[in-house]
Specification:
six-stranded mixed beta sheet; single chain; 408 residues; alpha/beta; four-stranded parallel beta sheet; Rossmann fold
């Protein structure tokens, strides 16, 4: 049995196929993202879910559905198989007793971005890439810098000045070449474009401009389904910036259905955005197939501060095809839910994950979710990377001096 059943790459717009065994970016015809395709017929006849159960508990247990050709090419820090935790107290409070959280804060580098980095860097190194550049809102850059160091690759990371400081420090610690720009991730993307144009040996690892990050992200969907006994939940709620994880989850659900490993209706997918940056929500509400750039984008959930996702049409397609929806939440709401989840469940989630929790609460209140729905929210990273979301100068907090006296 081959380690990977990768067969070809396929354009998401024109459907053109191309060979996968050299570095690729966008489709040469229409400049749209490429998706990895697999020989699912061969896989269906040779592997069963029970075979996977005996493998190591990391994302590489699904190696036939990942693009890395050889086991020796895998670059790993132990990523994958994060817990699927019941949010019992919070769920009862909001009327969703079957609420679950996929907690990506426990993965290497502290965010789900490690999944895309593990697979993307492994495949890039396997194809002979030696140096890449990428824009980031923080966590993706930190992850790709770490995995680049692990693989012996050179990484150039460009991030907005407002990105979480810890992510910049992570990149520096991993030896990456770090550039900081004023503005948002699209401004960082323009700098990366200039760097790639100036140096043909630099591989552009921007979101969906290379086809393999999404393959790592889709393993969240694989794990959710496996952790539920190969039975998908009713709803998956995903904080959406570039939307690669949501696109990847939808992609793998279709792959699993074709394999016969799942059956019935797919989970309804929900894209959550912040009110200060909600291009997908606006496009969905208008019935549009693509989004328009969001002006003056801003939110405390910095990871979803993406004014114009390259894969917007793929996100919107996934929502429509699964009878899902898109919803925006305010920074005030998500910060309140961040605190409440920590108080009730002991989980310090990231603001993007809190946005997904807020969406669950609001959708239940609106009647879009029912009492019986099994709902999975994605917490995409650890709250420890965003310490300012929990202020310390709270009213009534005692300050104790060295002699034991208290005061303010």
């Amino acid at each position: 049995m081959r380690f990977s059943q990768l067969s070809h790459l396929e354009c998401t717009r024109c459907g053109a196929a191309c060979a996968p065994d050299r570095p690729r970016q966008l489709c040469g015809r229409c400049r749209a993202p490429l998706l990895a395709r697999y020989d699912l017929a061969a896989l269906r006849s040779s592997v069963r879910p029970a075979d996977i159960a005996a493998r190591p508990a990391d994302l590489w247990r699904y190696h036939e559905l990942l693009p890395v050709r050889e086991a020796d090419a895998v670059v790993t820090l132990g990523e994958g198989m994060t817990p699927l935790l019941p949010l019992s107290r919070y769920g009862e409070l909001i009327g969703l007793p079957r609420l679950l959280m996929k907690d990506e804060g426990l993965i290497p580098t502290g965010s789900f971005k490690a999944r895309g980095a593990a697979v993307g860097v492994s495949r890039a190194a396997e194809l002979g890439v030696e140096r890449f550049a990428m824009p980031t809102n923080g966590n993706a850059g930190a992850a790709w810098a770490a995995y680049a160091a692990r693989a012996g690759l050179t990484a150039t990371i460009v991030m907005p000045a407002d990105a979480p400081e810890i992510t910049r420090r992570e990149c520096v610690a991993a030896g990456a070449d770090v550039h900081v720009v004023e503005g948002v991730i699209s401004d960082a993307g323009r700098v990366v474009g200039e760097l790639v144009a100036a140096g043909p040996s630099v591989y552009d690892a921007s979101t969906l401009k290379e086809p393999y990050r999404i393959e790592g992200k889709k393993t969240m969907g694989l794990e959710i389904v496996e952790q539920l006994g190969w039975r998908p939940p009713d709803v998956i709620i995903y904080p959406t910036g570039g939307g690669v994880g949501l696109i990847g989850i939808y992609k793998v659900l279709l792959e699993l259905r074709e394999l016969g490993w799942i059956s019935g209706a797919l989970p309804r997918l929900v894209a959550v955005q912040a009110e200060g940056c909600a291009p997908i929500v606006r496009a969905f509400e208008r019935g549009e197939s693509v989004s328009a750039p969001w002006p003056n984008a801003h939110t405390v959930a910095f990871g979803i501060n993406v004014p114009k996702p390259l894969g917007d049409f793929l996100i919107l397609e996934a929502l429509t095809a699964t009878s899902g929806t898109a919803i925006s939440v305010s920074d005030h709401e998500l910060l309140a839910d961040l605190r409440q989840v920590a108080e009730l469940e002991g989980a310090f989630i990231c603001p993007e994950g809190a946005a997904a929790v807020t969406a669950a609460r609001k959708l239940r209140g609106a009647g879009w979710l029912s009492l019986d729905d099994q709902v999975v929210v994605l917490n995409t990273g650890t709250g420890l990377k965003y310490p300012a979301t929990v202020p310390l100068d709270l009213p009534g907090m005692p300050v104790r001096s060295a002699d034991g006296a208290t005061g303010r």
